[in-house]
Structures are given as structure tokens and as C-alpha cells.
Design goal:
Length: 658
């Protein structure tokens, strides 16, 4: 059954009946480039090569949308903040160089026991430190502002595409790598937008630092002269060469040791998302589980799911241990190596203590710049995995969007009726996303004020037909046409109860303050929920507090507030007893006498509240409409059923419409 409630929705012919959806579509296409076609694997590729190509394309797909933040349709502050951050990085590297020069001067003054110079340099040190601190603090603020605004922009763009045209629902009906979209949008997208800013800033800092302090090392260290077997070997820029070799060893070691980091991190993130989903599923279905006594089975399932999480964490811990071995060893050796290299020149008097300390400081900075990969490889791997997960969701949305624009699988068209008919189904066929027919060639016209009951055995496609009418099911053929400016409101079997106050739950999907307190209380009173009026402003978990029958009564209260033109009831009274069901239907007919009702139900008692009954029957190649009868007599005949089956059917409880 449909788990979300729609309405009221204005249905206007060629606009597919939903201006708000079109607005969101416009927003999503403005903020992101059109979805690219997915790559087709080469038949000659091995399974591993095809998987590698897919993963590579996923990163490309992520950047196609993500880079839109810096385009004309992106954030107006994106470039100003980015340029300001780059300027601060450059100035901060200058301060680093100043501190490095100060380091040399202070040690030279100490070696010479020059008190005046020491005191002077001590005074100079404070402005250098405070300036560097101010720069770094501002740099952090700007960097996090870019991350925050980028995440906000891209999250809104993805959510707009996810919610447009019921895609959030359609993802449950198609195959693809898009499980747990809520975790991908909330967590993976956060990491996918935070890490790149840190990486780019880190790379720029590393490049500028390495460029600046390599010159310092080359200038201070000069050439190293070694006497070997009676001859002298000269190594120009020996400190620079040593720094490059040292960084090359550590970086290559990290690349080899952590080559499986990305894959392990990606699997770990997926298992974490599945565990969160399982916990949420238990919470949302707590009442049913408790009534059935299914705690033991749920615990076993949770323990199994959590066991997968622990297993992946253990594999990830091993990767962290290996990378920590390299990074920790590198951090311990880096300060010592330049001192040992400069020791011979210092002992022979060709290098001062200040030069040794300046060289050590510069070597550490160069080593840190070259060793950027060593320090950031785990996080880079985590970003890689998160970017691929959000890109997989984007690709699934791309597929749905392309299918909306293509007739390859067949699309149900939505338009506007040309006469007084409020709703017409014209050769409507409903199929699965793989082309399998569910309902075939249905032609029905419904006039204003009619109350139509759609009947049929389970599995004949009644609820699927309702989804097609509501616009949630796009695949098929034919068209669904509404009268202009008519509002459609749907009541599913499981009404959606949002978080917040009871007042908000009754007013949904309208704003809680759209109606006065008296009108909301009156609506609750008419559906038999008057005992809840004292709690109307209470913020409580109403989705867990209300029973199934109370939720369905609350959904009928929404009808009274929104006063739509067309109501679609999909087993909307299944949780009510017969007397309560009768009272609800009588109340709707009394309070909304002009409303058009389309009901999907199994109970025969509901026929008394409808003027017409159409029946679906399962056939080869898809269910078909086999009968359309008046439950109450009409003064004039109407050509409402245009085509049923190949041969006439016997009359059923009334006159068969031809």
C-alpha cells in the first residue's frame, strides 16, 4: 500500500497536475546539470574491469553535480569565500616562513650569547604567533563556511530530485545501488562535501610549503662533501634530495599498505547504514512486533546485522593499524633525520646552530607537505567510498529522470479533460519498470459527484491503478486526465502521521496554523476523536501513540479541513469496524456532498455508500476492467465504459455499461 499521503493537489492537464512538483523539478535542474548517460561495459571486459570502470564513473557522476556549487546557478558566495580562503593560505605560508627565519635567528643569538638580540626576538615572536593564530582561525572559519554552504546547496538539490514526481517512492520499485537513501543524503553527502575542501586546502598548503621551504633547505644545506675511498663525492642540495627520497618511501609504503582501504571503508559504510535501517524498522513497527512477540527474532536479526558491522570494523581496524605504522614511524624519524644530516657540517664549523635548527624546521615542513598522502590516506579512502554511495543514488535518480523523458518503457500521460468529466482514464495501461503489464487498456470516465468503488481480488492491480491515478506510478501507457483546477486528496491504508503536535498531524500536509483551533477541534469531533481535543497542542510521538483505527479517523479529519474535489480512498477504512466505517462514510457524504469519491476496498458493505462499481479481473497479459455497473439508478445513460473485453459479459447487480 502507499505509505505517504498526498493532497490536496491541483491537477491541471498538461502540467501533470502538480505545480509544486514542477517548481522542484525546475530547482533541481537549475542546480545540477542534466543527468549523463551511464557507461555501458565493454563485453570484452572482465568482471573486475567492469567494476573498476563503474567505480571510476561514480566519482565522475558525483563531480558533475557537486561542481555546480561554483557555477552561475550555484551559491553566490562560493567564489568570494574560495578566493578569500586561498589568499589566507598564501599569507599563512608567509607567516610560516617568518617563524622559520625567526627560529634560525634565536638559536644563533643563543649560541652567541647575545642577550639584546634574544630579548628583541622574543618581542618579535608575539606578533608572529598572534598573526599566525588569527590567520589560521579565520582560515578554519572560511573553510567550514564553504563546507557548510556546499553541503546545504547539494543536499537541497539532491532532495529536490529525490522528492520530485514521487521518485523517493519509485526507488523502492526498481533495482539499483540506492539502498538507505536517507543515510546517503544525511551522512555520506556530508563527508563527500567536507573532505574535498580539506583536501584542496591541504594540497595547496603542501605545495606552497614545499616550494618555499625546499628553497630554504637548498640555500642552508648547500652541498654535502663525502670522502669515499680517497676521493670526494659532492651531493648538491642533499637536504632536499633526502626529503624527497624520505617522502617517496613513506608515501609509496602507504599506497601499498592501504590499497584496500577504499573498498573496506565502502563496505563498512554500507553495513552501518543497513544496521541503522534495521533499528529504525524495528522502532517504526514496534507495536506489531510486540503484539506478535517477535522480540527474539528481531534480536537475532539485529545481532546478525550488527555482527556484519563489527566484522567490517575489524577489517578497517587492520587497515588503520597498517597505515598508523607508516605515519607514526614517519613522524618520529622526520625531526631527527635533518639534525643527523647537518651534524657533520655543524661540527666542522661550516653551519651554525641556528642554521641547523632552521634546516630541521624546514625539513619537517617539507616532509609534512610531501607526506600529505600518508596523513590523509584513510580520510581520502573514506571520502572515496562516500562519494560513490551518493553518486549511486544520483545514478538511480538519473535513470528515473531519463525514463520520465523517454518513451522507451512507455509513460502514462497526464492531461486535462475536455468536458464536464472530472476524471478520465483513456486506454490506461500500467506496467512494471521492466515492461510487464499489470493493468491493461482501461477506459473510464467519472463525472462530478460520483462515488465509484473499484473492486477485485487481491493482486489484480487495484492499488497500482490508484498510484497511477495519483501520478506515483509512471510506467505504462494511455493517459490520466483531470478537470482543470480540481483538487485531489488521497487517503492510503496507512495514514502518514508527522512528528510534532497533534494539530500539525491533523492539518498535514497543510501548515498547522492554516486553520483555527476551533476548526481543527470541530474536525476531530466529527470523526469521533473528540477525546483528543485537549491534547491538540501536545508534542508527542503520535505515530506510535494512535491506534490504526485512530490514524484512519484522523485522516478523515484532514479531508474535512482540506475540502478537496476528488478523494481517492485506498483501503482507508480497513482498520475500522463496520459501524465506525459506516459513520465515516456517512460523515464524508454529509459534510462534502459534492465531492467525487474513488474507493479501493474489499468490503462489500461499502457498496451502500457508492453510486457505481467497477471490477478488475486478472487476465493473461495484465488485469482488465470487466464490469462497470450503477449501484443506484441514473435518469440518463452515459457512455462511461468505452471498452471492456472482447465479448459481452452477463449483467452483475445492475446494468452493464457498454
Amino acid at each position: 500500500m502507499i505509505d505517504t499521503e498526498l493532497g490536496p493537489k491541483s491537477v491541471k492537464g498538461a502540467k501533470a497536475g502538480d505545480d509544486e512538483t514542477l517548481r522542484r523539478e525546475k530547482l533541481s535542474t537549475a542546480e545540477t546539470e542534466p543527468p549523463p548517460e551511464g557507461i555501458e561495459p565493454d563485453p570484452q571486459w572482465t568482471a573486475e574491469e567492469a567494476e573498476q570502470a563503474r567505480k571510476k564513473y561514480l566519482l565522475t557522476r558525483f563531480w558533475i553535480s557537486a561542481r555546480g556549487y561554483w557555477t552561475r546557478n550555484g551559491d553566490k558566495l562560493a567564489w568570494p569565500c574560495t578566493i578569500a580562503l586561498l589568499a589566507l593560505i598564501c599569507v599563512n605560508v608567509g607567516f610560516q616562513y617568518g617563524i622559520n627565519v625567526w627560529n634560525r635567528a634565536i638559536f644563533d643569538a643563543l649560541e652567541q650569547r647575545n642577550a639584546d638580540t634574544v630579548y628583541y626576538l622574543s618581542a618579535v615572536f608575539l606578533p608572529l604567533v598572534f598573526g599566525s593564530i588569527a590567520l589560521v582561525t579565520t582560515q578554519v572559519a572560511l573553510r567550514m563556511a564553504i563546507q557548510r554552504r556546499w553541503r546545504s546547496w547539494l543536499t537541497k538539490a539532491v532532495i529536490a530530485r529525490w522528492l520530485a514526481n514521487g521518485r523517493y517512492y519509485q526507488l523502492n520499485l526498481i533495482g539499483g545501488d540506492h539502498k538507505n537513501p536517507e543515510a546517503r543524503i544525511a551522512e555520506d553527502l556530508r563527508i563527500a562535501t567536507e573532505a574535498p575542501v580539506d583536501f584542496v586546502a591541504g594540497v595547496i598548503v603542501a605545495f606552497l610549503s614545499a616550494s618555499t621551504f625546499i628553497i630554504v633547505l637548498w640555500t642552508i644545506g648547500g652541498a654535502l662533501h663525502l670522502a669515499i675511498a680517497g676521493s670526494t663525492v659532492t651531493i648538491p642540495g642533499f637536504l632536499v634530495i633526502t626529503a624527497v627520497i624520505y617522502a617517496g618511501i613513506t608515501s609509496s609504503s602507504m599506497a601499498v599498505i592501504g590499497r584496500h582501504f577504499v573498498q573496506v571503508s565502502e563496505v563498512k559504510n554500507q553495513t552501518e547504514a543497513e544496521f541503522r535501517y534495521t533499528l529504525t524498522h524495528v522502532r517504526e513497527n514496534g507495536e506489531s512486533i510486540a503484539l506478535l512477540g517477535g522480540e527474539e527474532e528481531e534480536r537475532n536479526d539485529l545481532e546478525k546485522t550488527f555482527g556484519n558491522v563489527i566484522k567490517q570494523w575489524a577489517l578497517l581496524a587492520r587497515q588503520h593499524m597498517r597505515t598508523t605504522l607508516v605515519s607514526q614511524g614517519s613522524s618520529l624519524f622526520a625531526p631527527v633525520v635533518p639534525v643527523l644530516l647537518c651534524a657533520p657540517k655543524f661540527l666542522e664549523g661550516s653551519m651554525t646552530l641556528g642554521q641547523v635548527m632552521q634546516a630541521a624546521s624546514a625539513f619537517a615542513i617539507v616532509q609534512g607537505a610531501f607526506g600529505w598522502l600518508v596523513d590523509n590516506y584513510p580520510r581520502l579512502a573514506d571520502w572515496n567510498a562516500c562519494a560513490r554511495r551518493i553518486a549511486s543514488l544520483m545514478m538511480s535518480l538519473d535513470g528515473l529522470e531519463r525514463s520520465e523523458q523517454s518513451d522507451a518503457l512507455g509513460r502514462i500521460k497526464r492531461g486535462e479533460t475536455k468536458s464536464n468529466v472530472v476524471l478520465s482514464l483513456n486506454d490506461l495501461s500500467v506496467s512494471l519498470d521492466d515492461g510487464t503489464a499489470v493493468v491493461k487498456e482501461t477506459r473510464v470516465e467519472i463525472e462530478p459527484g460520483e462515488r465509484v468503488l473499484v473492486a477485485g481480488e487481491s493482486g489484480t492491480g487495484k492499488s497500482t491503478l490508484v498510484r497511477a491515478i495519483a501520478g506515483l506510478w509512471p510506467w505504462g501507457g494511455g493517459s490520466v486526465c483531470f478537470h482543470a483546477d480540481r483538487q485531489l486528496f488521497m487517503l492510503p491504508q496507512r495514514p502518514y502521521i508527522p512528528s510534532g503536535t497533534l494539530r500539525r498531524a491533523v492539518a498535514y500536509p497543510g501548515a498547522a496554523d492554516r486553520w483555527t483551533l476551533e476548526k481543527i477541534k470541530d474536525a476531530l469531533d466529527k470523526v469521533g476523536l473528540d477525546y483528543l481535543t485537549d491534547k491538540i497542542e501536545e508534542d508527542a510521538p503520535w505515530d506510535q501513540t494512535l491506534s490504526g483505527g485512530e490514524k484512519q479517523r484522523l485522516a478523515f479529519a484532514r479531508l474535512l479541513l482540506h475540502n478537496p474535489d476528488i478523494i481517492v480512498l485506498d483501503e482507508a477504512t480497513s482498520a475500522l469496524d463496520e459501524k465506525s466505517q459506516d459513520r465515516m462514510m456517512e460523515m464524508v457524504i454529509r459534510e462534502l456532498p459534492k465531492v467525487t469519491i474513488i474507493s479501493v476496498a474489499h468490503r462489500a458493505e461499502l457498496e451502500a455508500f457508492h453510486s457505481r462499481k467497477v471490477t478488475l479481473e486478472r487476465r493473461d497479459g495484465g488485469a482488465r476492467l470487466v464490469s462497470d455497473v450503477d449501484l443506484v439508478p441514473h435518469k440518463r445513460k452515459r457512455n462511461l465504459l468505452l471498452r471492456l473485453v472482447e465479448k459481452p459479459l452477463p449483467k452483475r447487480n445492475g446494468s452493464l455499461r457498454r
